[in-house]
Amino acid sequence: MVSVERLRHHLLETGYTIDGVRVRLGAMAASALAREELVPALRATADGDPLATLIRLWWLGVPVPAKSVPTEVLESGLVSADGDQIRATVHLQPWETGGYVVSDRKVRPGDPALRPDHVVGAGGASANLAQLATSRAVPRALDLGTGCGVRVLSLAGRAEQIVATDLNPRAVELARLSWELSGVTGVDARVGSMFEPVEHELFDLVVSNPPFVIAPGAERTLTYRESGGDGDDFCRDLVRRTPRHLAPDGQAHFLANWLHVEGEDWHDRVGGWLRETGCDAWVVQRDVQDPAEYVELWLKDAAEQGTKGYTDHYDRWLAWFDERKVEGIGFGWITMRNSGTLDPVVRVEHLSHQVGLPVGDYVDDVLDSIAAAHRAADLDAALLRTAEGLLDERVGLPGAEDPIRIVLRQTQGLRRSREVGTVEAALAGVCDGELALGPLLNVIAELVGDGEIPNADAVRPLIAEGFFLL
After folding, report:
1. What confidence category does residue 451 fall into, taking pLDDT thresholds of 50, 70 and 90?
2. Which 8-state DSSP code applies to residue 410?
3. Handedness of CA 424, 429, 430, 433 (dihedral sign)
4. CB-CB contact of 259 with 269 (8 Å)
5. What is the longest distance spanned by two Cα atoms in the chain?
């Protein structure tokens, strides 16, 4: 087997990077690939030059002529010969943050069924989690369920020590190759379920894209996406076991799915997982799918569309949801922080609009705002300032003295908007951290002529949502 370093050098020298692939394929081919259509990408790589060969071999997963494959690739141990053709035995892709990710080959319609220990490649979920996790430097980080090892690539620049675990030994094997090809060293890789490999250890940052797919426990389990547990119990148990592994002020960031059950508020369901953890927590639901959409998504993920058992599998999965009175499945993220307080705060919300990325650049500020709004004992004495980039938008009839509607809109961070009254709007225009909230509200009440002094506690929701900063 040729050295990994020589292979890495060849990939870089040939231009097999994320930018190199994008430029070569172009927008149309990239869009078609998102729909699992290869023809435009095959046309874009028809010349058979060195970069086209690597894209076809490892990005598209199609055979290439043996005569076009260099020694560094032939002797890598990651390809196999089929007559005068060479096929990749893995999927090797350049990653957004630099480096390379090695996984099992992408599965497409008509391919054989996935093996239970299939190692899925990096995709949208991996990118989402990388955008969510705090960007601050930390002494110790844990990548729980590392899979192909992609999350370590974003942790490597800011964690002094990284531990990566996975239940699947094959995943750990391919993850090590990903790190070596990416020039990442010193990762402590361990095999085991959930927190078992790190029992009694503490971390400043825990990240995980866990096997959150909610499927009948009796169905064939794919370890990369399904835990075999009942419903969303796996995500619940993950959340509840996390605090014992968080160092003081440590954070955890997870992607998760949860059930929307008839007669039960999903806010209460997911919030209940967190209220006994002792950690501050922030849960954001980004999308909700009905059971049929959800089943179709994950059957497509396993390339089961068009197979003989597709209809039966689809029907059994829906029947399983019906038995549990499931009306929908939520997808989002969960953030926890070990704040060391006896009065933790949990915020659960749905955000479907576009937010500023990466969230990790300001997630600490979001947690601070949520906690401050909850714990501030005397808001009358609080010194508030308006969040940077806040807009005051007013809608009214032409010539009218007063607006019909006033909206405060954030242009940064979570980009929230909230309809407010004249008092809150006036407050946004004057609070600069110099005068306490109580006296400010007194002055504003006189100016707007309402006669009644507003209660400072009414401003708490605006503090929690980051419109005003303490």
Report:
1. low
2. E
3. positive
4. yes
5. 89
pLDDT attached to residue 449 = 65
* Cα-based distances in Å from 137 to 128, 187, 205, 418, 443: 19, 16, 9, 33, 43
Apex 138 CA angle, 120 and 278, nearest 5: 85
Residue 298, token pair as written in the block: 């994950």
Length of the chain: 470
Q: Does 358 sit behind a cis peptide bond, omega within 30 degrees of 0 on the bond before it?
A: yes
Residues 16/99, Cβ–Cβ less than 8 Å? no
DSSP-assigned letters across all residues of 3-57: -HHHHHHHHHHHT-SHHHHHHHHHHHHHHHHHTT--HHHHHHTTT--HHHHHIII
pLDDT by residue (tens digit) across 362-397? 999 999 999 999 998 889 999 999 999 999 999 998
Q: Side chain identity at 381, as an amino acid letter?
A: A
- What tens digit of pLDDT does each residue of 180-201 get? 999 999 999 999 999 999 999 9
- pLDDT bin (cut points 50, 70, 90) of residue 442 is confident
CB 63 within 8 A of CB 87: yes
- Rounded to 5°, the CA angle 266-208-142 comes to 140
User: Which token pair is 210?
Assistant: 């866990």
> Rounded to whole angstroms, how far apart are CA atoms 254 and 230?
19
Pairing of the two strands 85-88 and 91-94: unpaired
Q: Residue 325: what pLDDT?
A: 97
- Return d(Cα 213, Cα 235) in angstroms, integer: 10
Q: What sign does the CA torsion over 216, 252, 171, 7 have?
A: positive
Tokens of 85: 């053709």
How many angstroms separate the CA atoms of 443 and 232, rounded?
A: 51
Other CB atoms within 10 A of residue 391 CB: 11
pTM greater than 0.70: yes
Q: Can you list the positions of beta strands (E) in 10-147?
A: 64-65, 79-82, 85-88, 91-94, 100-103, 138-144
Residue 431, token pair as written in the block = 């609070």
**Each residue's pLDDT tens digit, 270-306:** 999 999 899 999 999 999 999 999 999 999 888 888 8
User: Who's near 399: CB < 8 A, 6+ residues apart?
Assistant: none
Give the burial class of 434: count Cβ atoms within 10 A of its Cβ; 0-12 exposed, 13-18 middle, 19 or more buried.
exposed
